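Recall the central idea of this unit: under ordinary conditions, the amino acid sequence of a chain determines the structure it adopts. In this exercise we apply that idea directly, starting from the sequence alone.
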Amino acid sequence: MLLHKLKYFIEIAEQRSFTSAASTFYVSQPALSKQVKLLEEELGFTLFNRSVRGVELTKKGRALFEDLKPLFHQIDKTVGLYKQFDHIRFGSTPMLSSYFLPGYYEKLQYTNLDVTVVQEESQDLIPLLNKQEIDAAIVQDIPSVEGLHSKLLFEENFVAAIPISYALASKDTITIEECFDYTQILPPAGSLSLNVRRMMKEQNVERDVLETHYLGMVGLVSLGIGIAYLPSMMAKEIEHRGVVFIPIKGAPLKRKMYLYAVTSSVLEVLSESLK
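Accordingly, the structure predicted from this sequence is:
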């Protein structure tokens, strides 16, 4: 009930008239005046000075109005955005669906978001956005695409997944050069694989490379076959016998995740929910 009274207060302050504000809310002027009086009793100070010249805010009333107005503007804007969407079709990857989105489900439920498509590589979601088969998605390392709306959502480092049988497993941090002394376990495509291969080439490193999807990489590491690299969000959530996760000095491997949407309004409402 306090929130409703505050909305009355803001409207009266903006219109400087009880009569006009009462018309806006389709209530009688006496009823509106009663609500303001109750609000003043709850707050413990007078909000308005009434005179023949009209309605003027008191000093404390003015301060309260200036603090509350932007907050209520944001509330109205956010509610308006949510009301626009009956259903948001969202594209994701197995990793994001497992390790990122669950932390936001409580907020996302109000957007009526459903994960309708899951692709192994996030860049494969872009054609679906272009064809409007989905309304939004999170895409790795591609900041913009013509005709779509996007913004940076978050950035994170990769950590090294090390077999516990390796001498490196006892270290607090390791270098990428130390990792290159062992077989590399990489996804078959995507920016992680490209970046690791590029660094190996720059350092004239010739090392065996095994390719598998992200969810299979840790299993190969646990067998002592080689070293893999996982996003921090995944490493924080999983435990695997025979594997330790160690930060890499200088964070040479990182990724930027961009929120994409087919319209600016969908982008705005989802970016608010995924903060």
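The mean pLDDT is 89.
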